[in-house]
Amino acid sequence: MAYRSTNYKEDEVQLAQFAKALSHPARIAILKLLASMDTCFCGEIVEELPIAQATVSQHLKELKDAGLIQGCIEPPKIRYCIERENWKKAQELFLDFWQQSYLSESKNKSHDH
Amino acid sequence: MAYRSTNYKEDEVQLAQFAKALSHPARIAILKLLASMDTCFCGEIVEELPIAQATVSQHLKELKDAGLIQGCIEPPKIRYCIERENWKKAQELFLDFWQQSYLSESKNKSHDH
DNA sequence: TAAATATATCGTATATTTGCGATAAACAAT
DNA sequence: ATTGTTTATCGCAAATATACGATATATTTA
């Protein structure tokens, strides 16, 4: 963690952690790929992305650490997929965040003062 | 930008940028405060957060650079508020992301293979 | 056993982030 | 003019993030 997580609310810290996992386009691309294909092999991910294999592996580790994906070994390959439980938790945190308050009302209040 | 943004899709880069803006609990807290209060003065934000004024100011700058907030000068204070247009854009990008594919279906497909 | 395949990890260079004290800048009030 | 108030910026230190080549590990195949 790059920040002092004490003194922030549990939910804020969790949301920030998931946001950090999404804060790189390579990781967004990986998650979209996994979400669209249900599962896929590490090698397919490496082929899709414009970065080296070592770098992809690093991003996969970060997504695993964030809890958003998991990998099962199927020698000689590794099959990755979304970790549904945390995916759902993250989804809920983000939906709550974006839908908070008056900002998500479909009709704007008059703001032409 | 910490990464080579070429070779990624426009939407992925944008989503990653907004995610980066949300990737620190202080910034989450600031946005929640602004969303709940419509507008508030910089000083009120500083009082709410467990970090120094200089650090808050830095986080505010990042949120401004990301387009999520804006500040209007009301001497001697500065009134901050959500930048609604980009807020909506970000909201849409995140909703699309989380709702992609089979993962957001309320009933799971059978996964007991 | 040796070679090939698939993925993770190590080491390293560079860039970015986080945090804060000190200070600057802009303005209001005295 | 000086002082006080509010916020931004500078300068710095420490920690993280990004990227990749080289290498290690594990397993399959020849």
Mean pLDDT of chain A: 88
Task: Kindly report the spatial arrangement of strands forming the biggest sheet of chain A.
Answer: 1-3-2
Question: Helix/strand/pairing class of chain A, anyone?
Answer: alpha+beta
Helix content of chain A: 40-55%
- How big is the Rg of chain A? 17 Å
Multimerization status: homodimer
Give unreliable regions of chain A as ranges.
Answer: 106-113
Number of discrete domains of chain A: 1
Short description:
The structure is a homodimer of 113-residue chains. Chain A is α+β, with helices and mostly antiparallel strands and 113 residues long.
Question: Would you mind describing this structure in some detail?
Answer:
The structure is a homodimer of 113-residue chains. The radius of gyration of chain A is 17 Å and the shape is elongated. Chain A has a single domain (10-97), classed as Arc Repressor Mutant, subunit A, CATH 1.10.10. Chain A has five helices and three strands; from the N terminus they run H-H-E-H-H-E-E-H. Chain A has 113 residues and is an alpha+beta fold. Chain A has a three-stranded antiparallel sheet with strand order 1-3-2. The A-B interface holds A 2-9, 12-13, 15-16, 19-20, 22-29, 31-32, 35-36, 38, 50-51, 82, 84, 87, 90-91, 94-95, 97-98, 100-104, 108, 111 and B 2-9, 12-13, 15-16, 19-20, 22-29, 31-32, 35-36, 38, 50-51, 82, 84, 87, 90-91, 94-95, 97-98, 100-104, 108. The structure holds a DNA duplex (30 and 30 nucleotides).
